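User: Hello, can you help with two protein structures?

Assistant: Certainly.
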Amino acid sequence: MGRYVKNKRNIQVFLMLIFLGLILRLLFVFTIPMYPHAGFLPGYNDEPLHLYYVQHLAAGSGIPVYEPTGIDSIDHIRGEFVQPPLYYKAAVPAYKFGEFLHIGWGLYAVRLMSAIFGIVAGIFAYRLAYLWTNRRRVAQFTLAAMMFAPNAVLFTALVSNDALLICLSVMTLYSISLCREKDSTGNRLVITGAFLAAAVWVKLSAIVLLPLIVFCVSPGTRVKQRLSGYAKVFITFTLIMMPMIIWSIANYGQPYPGGGVAMQAQYQPEAAVGVSGGAIYHPFMAVKMFLRTASMPFLELWGSKLEKFITVIWLVTWSLFLALGTLKSLRQKPYSSVLVTAIVLMTTAFILRSIFLFQVEFRLYAPVFGALAVLTALGYELVNLPLWLHALMWCAPFLVILFV
């Protein structure tokens, strides 16, 4: 009887977190205006670019090819044309259905699709945490992070390929972990390679997860079986990536979409941090923007003393528990080094990108949001904080902008 009651309570907590996470996303779906229109919350300045890509496909124009012709508003919108097409292809039916119901509702339909991706990402992060720890409390803490952390919420409530990237990246981490811990059958290895390839079809930054295929087999596996497992994942990944590679070579002369550094220079280089090595020449500004966008993705809202104070407290608290969770992960069971390795790989790629190209926003860590959530949850477990306080701490930056 006691076990039944405990399981029932676990289910109730799980559903409550999902419900509240969905409500928060719905708030943003229907209240954030399309940039640059004003509202009680600001719009996200890249959203029109992503929506224009969806509209381009919905009009039957096919996958777009970026062709720079100069710096003006139209070229700026076409800048998102360098992105892989999977998210935008998935968004077309939702957009058409929304427009069928009412002109202008296509925006909200695609945002709702992004919100669904966010909920699915949370569910798989929950499963990822439970797989590594076998403790519901850590899984609940992880789910709270995925439901309420600012970047995880905002970018799964807007038209942005980051929404599907977050979802597929968590699914990839879960599948890799499942291979390592329980199921390294041929089917699971193929599924893992497919998840990874799908994530790269959404956004090229997911390629940083590719080295994690070394974790796809158990440590005690024989060398021959280990190499066979690696091969199955890599071959599946390569086969699924091949159409994009061929298309990109045909249109851009390189194995990935985009126009290179020349295209990136169109993103208002005089105002951006990190363009053409700007992160090297302005390191303090770059670090400030990175930390600020970790807790406050709404760039236009930054400025009040209360907001800055909450941001500092939020960052210090999160950093502390992330560090504690990482140490626990490496020193005690479970030895979830795959999660730590994922973050190290992402950090390395992020630094190189900031040096040679542009952008230092925290959202670029989307491929490892699941890993960050699990490791932070391990840290929270050490201090035995109640779940409601854990969720409230994640929401703190949103509470400032919503109610102050």
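That covers the first. Now for the second protein you mentioned:
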Amino acid sequence: MTNKAEKQKIWKYNELENLYQNTAEVQLGNRLLRILRMANEKGSMIESENHYPSFGLRGKSGKRIMSFWSPEEHHTNVRGSVHIFVNPERYANLNERDVLLEKLNKLLHFSDELDKLNFGKTSKKSLAELTEEDFLAFTKILEEYGFDRY
């Protein structure tokens, strides 16, 4: 468990891989591990500086479009939740962003008012809550909107 009073640190791939392989929440750990490995293999993993274990996903623009939260207890977010960034400059165009948000919102429930988001939003649902079919749909969305080498 990470202590909130601890100084923020940069979470490296190997640390996250070890954490995900050894978490008590096996299904969530396995899902985060699959995303982490995909992002690393495609050169789209972004190390995060945070109190809590997390990492980012670089989109086609070369900028972070998502962050993935740890299976550990977090003071504000659901374990294994996903944070989506909505800033227009992170995407090729607004249509790309809006279609991505709509697809992700159906799976992870970010907000009922997507058009009112101006920086980003964390999912109300954890990756562990997805059915296997929905998780596979989620990874297909990631392949479509992220994972490009930059």
